[in-house]
Amino acid sequence: EVTASLAVYNDSTGCRDTLSKVIKFASIDSFRYTLTPQKGCAPLKVLMSAPSDTGVFNYIWELGNGDRGFGNNYVATYPAEGQFVVKMFVRYNNGCLIASSQRDTVTVIKAHADFNFDKASGCVPAVFNFRDSSYSNSSPIVSYSWLFNNTATASGQTASYGFNALGTYSVKLTVQNQEGCRDSLTKTVTV
Predict the structure, then answer these.
(1) Rounded to an integer, what distance in angstroms lies between the CA atom of residue 162 and that of residue 148?
(2) Which DSSP category does 59 fall into?
(3) What is the DSSP letter of 94?
(4) How does pLDDT run along the chain (191 residues), one tens digit per residue?
(5) Does the bond joining 125 to the residue before it have cis omega, within 30 degrees of 0?
(6) Is 81 helix (H, G, I), strand (E, B) or coil?
(7) DSSP 3-state assignment of 66?
(8) Is there a contact between 169 and 186 (Cβ–Cβ < 8 Å)?
């Protein structure tokens, strides 16, 4: 805060007057914020938090994905994978809008499960060979879990399973990347 003074002197009358006013500047704390967490699996919920200030009318968040949020404790959900630069603006009670110079990045990670198998159908007994084709853009896939007809399991990037009766059976692959993000996909085979 600064005290500003204005002194006025009238040459013709010899009168003098002085006016002093205290000018308060916004607290630097109003411009700082935290993002919790800054990195995680989609959909990622992030708490955007800035200190409360009685001189602030509103906090405006640019989420880096085309969306905006409002308030000093705002929770944003990031459904898509990617990196998003967050910006915060503070609108004061006097109407001034000031941008924070702070820029933080939210990183959203996702695993994408997918697989192929060697034939569309087969005769009894039918042995199918399954091959993983999953991916994760920013973290390698480290775990593969197969579930055949909701009963038998296997692990690894490839698996084989024999079906001993006619019918349509489900095959589910669940993958997890190094960051702990999971995804699963179910396909059917016909015997």
Answers:
(1) 9
(2) E
(3) T
(4) 557 778 888 888 888 888 888 766 555 555 789 999 999 999 999 999 998 888 889 999 999 999 999 999 999 999 999 999 999 999 999 888 988 888 899 999 999 999 999 987 778 889 999 999 999 998 999 999 999 999 999 999 999 999 999 999 999 999 999 999 999 999 999 99
(5) yes
(6) coil
(7) coil
(8) no
Output the furthest CA–CA distance in the chain (Å, rounded).
Answer: 115
pTM exceeds cut of 0.85: no
Please give, one letter per residue, the 3-state secondary structure of 99-142. ECCCCEEEEEECCECCEEECCCECCCCEEEEEEECCECCCCCEE
d(CA 19, CA 179): 62
Residues 6+ apart with CB under 8 A from 66: none
Ramachandran angles phi, psi of 28, nearest 5°:
-60, -25
**Who contacts 119 (Cβ-Cβ below 8 Å, separation ≥6)?**
128
HSE, side-chain direction, 13 A CA sphere, residue 102: 17
Ranges of H-type helices in the chain = none
By DSSP bridging, strand 39-41 and strand 104-109 are parallel
Cα–Cα dist 127/179, whole Å: 34
d(CA 98, CA 92): 8
CB 48, CB 75: distance < 8 Å: yes
In single-letter form, the type of residue at position 107 comes to: T
